[in-house]
Amino acid sequence: MSETRTIRIADLTSYDFRRLVQEGPPVVLLPVGSIEQHGPHLPLSTDVILPEEIAMRVAARMGALVAPAISYGYKSQPKTGGGNHFPGTLSLDASTLIAMLRDVMNELVRHGIRHIVVFDGHMENQWFITEAIDLMLRDQRREGIDTVRAIKLGYWEFITPATEEVLFPDGLVSWALEHAAVMETSVMLHLRPDLVRADLIPDHPPAEFPPFDPYPFDLSTIPEDGVLSSAASATAQKGRLVVEQVVPDIANALSAFFARSGG
Question: Is Protein transport one of the keywords (predicted)?
Answer without folding.
Answer: no
